[in-house]
């Protein structure tokens, strides 16, 4: 199960998703103050005080479910085609993570956002997407190899 390269890719996708949780994703400069956006939600920064404006529980739940989904795919190693199909769903979920982040970012403010400073954790869903894509290709290649060996016998 772990000796297949796609298992490593699914694990890396799950790790990339989990690495999004503790870090700040972007800093937002809005006309009514400064904000930071992370998995915990959108927090207003005023001096040394940080006030949670919008809760990030749906974000944390989505990211955790995405990571668990990638780990579950690893343990379905006896059914490679199911793994390939679930990898397609994982790719869609990685793209959906960008959609959820964009929804939070653009629908959260009544005031005008003057500037956004994006941080490196926003690249992690892209890393997870690429890892899921490579894992899907590996699962399909394994299945094709097994089917070709069945024909030879």
**In angstroms, what is the radius of gyration?**
19 Å
Strand order of the largest sheet: 4-3-2-1-5
- Globally, the shape reads elongated
CATH class: Mainly Alpha
CATH architecture: Up-down Bundle
Description of the structure:
The chain has 153 residues and is of the alpha+beta class. The chain has a single domain, classed as Up-down Bundle (Butyryl-CoA Dehydrogenase, subunit A, domain 3). The chain contains four helices and five strands, in the order αββββααβα. It has helices at residues 5-19, 57-74, 80-107, 124-152, and strands at 24-30, 33-38, 41-46, 49-55, 113-118. A five-stranded antiparallel β-sheet has the order 4-3-2-1-5.
Key traits:
five-stranded antiparallel beta sheet, alpha+beta, 59% helix, Butyryl-CoA Dehydrogenase, subunit A, domain 3, 153 residues, 4 helices
How would you briefly describe this protein structure?
This protein has 153 residues and is of the alpha+beta class. The chain has helices at 5-19, 57-74, 80-107, 124-152; strands at residues 24-30, 33-38, 41-46, 49-55, 113-118. The chain has a 5-stranded antiparallel sheet.
Reconstruct the topology from this structure.
Elements: H1 5-19, E1 24-30, E2 33-38, E3 41-46, E4 49-55, H2 57-74, H3 80-107, E5 113-118, H4 124-152
Antiparallel strand pairs: 1-2, 1-5, 2-3, 3-4
């Amino acid at each position: 199960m772990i000796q297949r390269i796609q298992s490593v890719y699914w694990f890396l996708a799950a790790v990339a998703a989990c690495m999004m949780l503790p870090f700040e994703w972007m800093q937002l400069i809005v006309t009514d103050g400064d904000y930071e956006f992370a998995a915990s939600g959108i927090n207003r920064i005023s001096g040394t005080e940080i006030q949670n404006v919008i809760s990030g529980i749906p974000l944390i739940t989505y990211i955790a479910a995405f990571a668990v989904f990638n780990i579950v795919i690893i343990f379905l190693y006896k059914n490679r085609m199911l793994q390939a199909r679930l990898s397609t769903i994982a790719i869609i979920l990685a793209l959906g993570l960008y959609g959820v982040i964009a929804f939070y970012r653009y629908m959260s403010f009544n005031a005008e956002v003057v500037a956004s400073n994006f941080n490196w954790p926003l690249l992690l869903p892209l890393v997870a997407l690429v890892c899921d894509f490579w894992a899907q290709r590996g699962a399909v290649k394994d299945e094709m190899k097994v089917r070709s060996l069945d024909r030879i016998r």
